């Protein structure tokens, strides 16, 4: 059961069914209350009409024995000011809800004996002052029951006051049966009790089918991802449905992620292969020199051994820095004076630095990593320059810009992005020697990106290459 409820399809079906159930209960309750209210109002209107018909007869002086009290077999009571029943329906056996439980009329005293024949209405409770022959406008409504000729029913009673010429103030109670209201409400309730479960079953089934159809592509994506994980074949892609909805966008995004992952894995494999290749040469050379020296100490090429060792050390340092950058290492958030750093690195390389504008050109980041960028750019420029290397630092709005230019042959437009790839070196026309392992510019670009900046190459004014490092200025 818990596994079933863990399904999105099951939860969606249950949720939709519960929402519809709450809506149906609320709507059904409102319908029943409205139906009952309307039927009770209609019954009250009928009871009032009957009471006023009898009150009209009393107002014109009709004797009790000639009143229309048994029309439609409805209970009628006529009560005087003292609460005495003076007239009632012939077959009335029991009554409640009118305030007078008597069903057998009693003789009433004449209106002149107590001096109240002047129409005083102090005892009727209606609050209305009526003239003889006048019927009250206010109607009192109540619910009760009555038994007529052995048939007990619920009724809505209406009380209408009337001032008679001879009997004084009387109150006519007349009832209208509530059987129609009970029957209609019970019928509606029965229909709801039968129909609501059926409707909920239909809603649940439709939601289950629609949700299953909507989630079918998701299941296809899941199966394909499981197969990719099992096979480790990153060249495979998940199916993209032609619905152009969220599921289709999910599949497209998944395929884009797989493409990026495949490219990353391929790049990592190439990186490992290239690193192994670059390490193999100095290691083999160093081993050869050591083996020769072991056999013939007089033939030891100490300078060559030291050079190969330094080359290995630099390559290991470059690989370690790239590994840290690939792992997402965040640079330090220190304030670095880019102009001072450029003068320091330029001094080591024997290159003068030209700073434009007054004051420092500060950026936020790692002084060590930014120094590595400058050292790599200067090393690259000196290896490819004919005679001169120029370094400048300036402010450009919110950016700090460092430019390194040489007067060499420049970089062809087609290679201006490729030179920033790892282990990429252009042909001998660009280089005067073997240079490094092809990691210097790749490291410089990665460090620039990690610092929120850019590193690009353009044509220098002297015809060579112009490398521009742009970094956000420190606040």
Helix content: 40-55%
What's the average pLDDT? 85
Instruction: Give the low-pLDDT segments.
Output: 110-125, 428-433
Q: Number of domains in the coordinates? A: 3
**Main sheet characteristics:** 6 strands, antiparallel
Side-by-side strand order of the widest sheet: 2-1-6-5-4-3
Separation of the first and last Cα atoms: 59 Å
Overall structural class, as computed from helix and strand content, comes to alpha+beta
Strand content: 15-25%
Strand elements, count: 13
Spell the H/E element sequence: HHEEEEEEHHHEHEEHEEHEE
Topology (elements, then pairings):
Layout: H1 2-5, H2 8-59, E1 76-80, E2 85-88, E3 92-96, E4 140-148, E5 151-164, E6 168-177, H3 179-231, H4 246-295, H5 302-326, E7 334-337, H6 338-349, E8 353-355, E9 362-365, H7 367-384, E10 389-396, E11 399-406, H8 440-450, E12 454-459, E13 465-472
Parallel strand pairs: 8-10
Antiparallel strand pairs: 1-2, 1-6, 3-4, 4-5, 5-6, 7-9, 10-11, 11-13, 12-13
Helix pairs in contact: 2-3, 4-5, 5-8, 6-7, 7-8
Descriptive key words:
5-stranded mixed beta sheet, 6-stranded antiparallel beta sheet, 13 strands, single chain, Helix Hairpins, Heat Shock Protein 90, 47% helix, 475 residues, alpha+beta
Structural features, described:
The chain contains eight helices and 13 strands. By secondary structure, it is α+β, with helices and mostly antiparallel strands. It has three domains: 1-231, no CATH class; 246-324, Orthogonal Bundle (Helix Hairpins); 331-472, Histidine kinase-like ATPase, C-terminal domain (Heat Shock Protein 90). Strand 10 and strand 11 form a beta hairpin. Helix 4 runs antiparallel to helix 5 (302-326), helix 5 (302-326) packs parallel to helix 8 and helix 7 (367-384) packs antiparallel against helix 8 (440-450). The longest helix is centred in the middle third of the chain and has 53 residues, at 179-231. Residues 110-125 and 428-433 have low confidence and may be disordered.
